[in-house]
């Protein structure tokens, strides 16, 4: 899924973050985005026009 596809679809889910900074990525997002374990995920902050 490329950035254009991600910006056109919006799915949300709240997850907990432990005191160690760990969060569980829901299975449906891992499957959809092709995230395998063990592995790494890149987080990127983007500015959105409102």
Give the rounded overall mean pLDDT: 84
Shape designation: extended
Overall radius of gyration: 13 Å
- Category by helix and strand content: mainly alpha
In total, the number of strands is: 0
H and E order: HH
Which assembly state applies to the chains in this document?
A: single chain
Main pleated-sheet profile:
none
Strand content: under 5%
Unreliable sequence segments: none
- Please estimate the helix content: 25-40%
**Count, helices:** 2
Span between N and C termini?
23 Å
Topology:
Layout: H1 3-8, H2 27-33
Salient structural properties:
single chain; extended; 2 helices; about 50 residues; mainly alpha
Explain what you see.
The protein is an all-alpha fold and 50 residues long. The protein is built from 2 helices and no strands. It has helices spanning 3-8, 27-33. The mean pLDDT is 84.
Give a short synopsis of this structure.
The protein has 2 helices and no strands.
């Amino acid at each position: 899924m490329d950035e254009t596809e991600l910006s056109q679809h919006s799915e949300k889910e709240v997850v907990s973050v432990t005191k160690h900074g760990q969060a569980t990525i829901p299975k449906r997002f891992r499957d959809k985005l092709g995230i395998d374990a063990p592995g790494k995920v890149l987080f990127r902050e983007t500015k959105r026009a409102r």
